[in-house]
Every structure is written in structure tokens, then in C-alpha cells.
Write a sequence for this structure.
């Protein structure tokens, strides 16, 4: 004979059922655009102009890789796609490394070094998080343009080779694309929350043995923070890879080969041609792959990192 459920058990089951239904609906809403993107990237031109549209090609004969080859090879020659991918890859990796180091160093100083005004500094950071980043875009661009003109005046003259000019401008532009994204306060606070869970006895013991802050940071604190670091790596990689607004502003009017994959993708999405729509979807699939790879590599550590950053001392 089955045991009769109590009111609390019935209520719990109802809540779980409702939660599952809500999560299922939200998941479908998130997944459908990805399915549409993937299916459209394989459609032939005849399927692209169909009304109503379908998620996938209408027949096996209409499956094609033309849109994937279209953004790699154009007019029989290798297009700028490899350059765009390289620009995105190296700038994203540099951004990830700098972000992890700067956030970890700042969090270490806030937690383990007793300096004057520490609490005021933390409150200022929390207040600064409420300021939208877009507010400083205009001022940043004006300053960027002024410094770029000064650099060109100081280092470039009529005898300067075009290759040297391009190298200076290319790396200066990417300096401005990378550096502003390395100062995120949210990631630093995640790191700080984890550092607060490390017993001070460990740090004091290391200091009594003569260990410097640098040695404690690299030999003790960072190895303990692997899960949180992987979480920040995922967040930073995703943000840097998808960064569009400021790079698009800086790269406007520059050489096409200097674009990142996201900026280049906007060129396809802004076109009304049906073929460009297929190429845009194929490019989107290609641009999504690195994020999926990083997520698959870091997903277990990401869960541990989310759990550990909520621990308080």
C-alpha cells in the first residue's frame, strides 16, 4: 500500500514540476535560435528565399557547405577569415591572462595586505560597478585618437616604411581593445570572495617562515584558487571574444584584415543579400566554436568555482 504524501511533499513536488516546466521553456527559447543558425548555415540559396522559413534544408540535395567555404575562400583566393580568427584568438588570450593576473593581484592585496583605506577602496569598487561602461566610450575614443595622432607624429615620417606604420597602428588599436576589458571589478570580487575563505593561519605561517608576498601569491594562493580562476577564464574569454562595440568603433575605416571575427560578422549581418545571410550564419557557427570548446574544458571547474566564491571566512 502506497504511503500517502504529506502536504509539504505535495507542495514540494508541485514546485519542482513548475520549476522544471519554466526551465524547459527558457531552454527552448535559448536553444531555438542556435538550431536555426546551424540549420541555415547549411541551406542552399533556394532554401534561404523560401517563405515560410524552415529550420533545416528542405531536402538532402539542398544541404551545402558553400556558405562555409564562402567566408574562407572568395574569388578563388583565401579571404581574410584566417586573419580575423587570429586577431580574435590572440587578443582574447592576452585579455584572459592579463585579467586573471590583475584581478588576482588586486584581490590578494585587498584580502591579505592591511593597507590604509582598504574598506573605502572596496566600497568604491562596489559603487563603480553601478556605472555603465558605455558612459566612458566617447571620452575613451577621444583620448585614443589624440594619443594615436601623437604617436604617429613622433614615430612616423616620410621615410617610414608602410609596414612599420601598419604595425604601430595595428598594435596600438589592439592595445585599446584589450586593456579596457582587463579591469572588470566583478571578476576581482569573485576572486576576493574565494581568498576570504583561505584561513589566515596559512598565510601567517608562510610569512613567519620568511615567504614574501610574491611567493605566497604564486605558490600558495593561486594553486588554491584554480576553480575560481577557471570560472574567471570562462567569463573573460566569452566577454573578450564577443566584444563588439568598442572594437567596431576603433576598427572602422581600418584595413579589413585587422578586424576581429565579431566585427567582421557585422559586415555580413548588415547585408540584405540572401547569400550573405547564409555566410553570416556559417560565420556565427564558426565564431561560436571556441566558446563551446572553452566551456567544455572548464565546465567542471566552473561549477566548483561558483560554489567556492560564495564561501565566507
Amino acid at each position: 500500500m502506497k504511503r500517502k504524501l504529506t502536504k509539504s511533499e505535495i507542495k514540494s513536488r508541485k514546485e519542482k514540476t513548475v520549476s522544471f516546466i519554466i526551465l524547459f521553456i527558457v531552454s527552448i527559447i535559448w536553444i531555438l535560435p542556435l538550431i536555426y543558425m546551424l540549420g541555415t548555415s547549411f541551406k542552399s540559396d533556394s532554401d534561404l528565399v523560401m517563405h515560410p522559413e524552415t529550420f533545416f534544408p528542405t531536402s538532402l540535395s539542398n544541404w551545402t557547405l558553400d556558405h562555409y567555404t564562402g567566408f574562407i575562400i572568395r574569388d578563388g583566393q583565401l579571404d581574410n577569415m584566417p586573419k580575423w580568427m587570429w586577431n580574435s584568438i590572440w587578443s582574447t588570450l592576452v585579455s584572459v591572462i592579463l585579467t586573471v593576473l590583475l584581478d588576482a593581484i588586486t584581490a590578494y592585496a585587498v584580502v591579505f595586505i592591511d593597507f590604509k583605506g582598504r574598506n573605502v577602496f572596496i566600497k568604491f569598487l562596489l559603487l563603480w560597478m553601478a556605472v555603465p561602461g558605455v558612459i566612458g566610450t566617447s571620452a575613451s575614443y577621444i583620448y585614443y585618437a589624440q594619443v594615436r595622432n601623437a604617436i604617429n607624429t613622433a614615430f612616423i615620417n616620410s621615410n617610414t616604411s608602410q609596414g612599420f606604420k601598419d604595425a604601430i597602428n595595428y598594435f596600438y588599436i589592439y592595445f585599446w581593445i584589450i586593456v579596457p576589458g582587463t579591469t572588470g571589478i566583478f571578476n576581482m570580487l569573485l576572486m576576493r570572495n574565494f581568498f576570504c575563505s583561505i584561513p589566515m593561519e596559512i598565510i601567517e605561517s608562510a610569512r613567519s617562515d620568511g615567504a614574501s608576498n610574491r611567493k605566497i601569491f604564486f605558490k600558495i594562493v593561486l594553486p588554491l584558487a584554480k576553480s575560481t580562476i577557471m570560472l574567471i577564464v570562462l567569463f573573460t574569454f566569452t566577454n573578450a571574444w564577443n566584444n563588439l562595440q568598442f572594437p567596431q568603433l576603433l576598427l572602422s575605416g581600418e584595413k579589413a584584415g585587422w578586424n576581429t571575427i565579431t566585427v567582421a560578422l557585422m559586415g555580413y549581418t548588415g547585408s540584405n543579400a540572401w547569400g550573405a545571410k547564409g555566410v553570416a550564419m556559417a560565420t556565427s557557427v564558426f565564431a561560436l566554436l571556441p566558446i563551446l570548446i572553452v566551456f567544455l574544458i572548464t565546465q567542471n571547474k566552473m561549477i566548483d568555482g561558483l560554489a567556492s566564491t560564495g564561501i565566507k571566512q
User: Anything to note?
Assistant: DSSP finds 14 helices and two strands in the chain. Residues 67-308 form a domain with the MetI-like fold fold (CATH 1.10.3720.10). The longest strand covers residues 73-74.
